[in-house]
From TrEMBL:
Alphabetical list of PROSITE patterns matching this protein: PROKAR_LIPOPROTEIN (PS51257)
Name of this protein: YusW-like protein
InterPro entries noted in UniProt: YusW
Length: 154
């Protein structure tokens, strides 16, 4: 009985640790902020915003086994970031991913009113996406609350 309890506790601890790996711990002072969290702390969102979205997801498929994926979230609970590039064998999470993604995000200047093709063109240029992709999909939650999905097939 004690062994089962010990194994269950160990299993739960491993799961909880794994869930936290993509959280950004070393958040720069100029990192963008969730408007709701900023209002609660008294900061104004414009004081800290360096890009105009709270969530950004990029999925580029090159083949059934090769893709380039980016996930970024800035919520009340904190910032999380992931970057996976199967072609370069890169898998980054948390601070490492954020450090790599922040300068790229700063180059993006689209908003919720930007046409689909302009958004995709910017993402391709900024993230250096190779022309031989099968599909590209970008999902964004903007600071103004709008959520948009942008797609392109070659």
């Amino acid at each position: 009985m004690k062994l089962k309890l010990l194994l269950a506790i160990s299993f739960v601890m491993v799961i909880l640790y794994g869930c936290n790996k993509d959280e950004v711990k070393d958040v720069p002072t100029n990192a963008p902020a969730d408007q709701n969290a900023s209002q609660q702390t008294g900061d104004t969102p414009t004081d800290q915003v360096t890009f105009n979205f709270l969530e950004f997801s990029l999925d580029v498929d090159y083949s059934a086994t090769e893709s380039y994926e980016v996930e970024y979230e800035n919520k009340k609970s904190g910032i999380s970031a992931k970057l996976q590039d199967d072609r370069q064998n890169v898998k980054l999470q948390g601070d490492e991913a954020y450090t790599k993604l922040e300068p790229l995000f700063k180059q993006l200047n689209f908003d919720s009113t930007t046409p689909n093709d302009e958004v995709i063109d910017q993402v391709i240029k900024v993230f250096n996406i190779e022309d031989n992709y099968q599909s590209i999909e970008v999902e964004v939650e903007f600071m103004d609350g709008n959520e948009k999905e942008f797609k392109r097939l070659p």
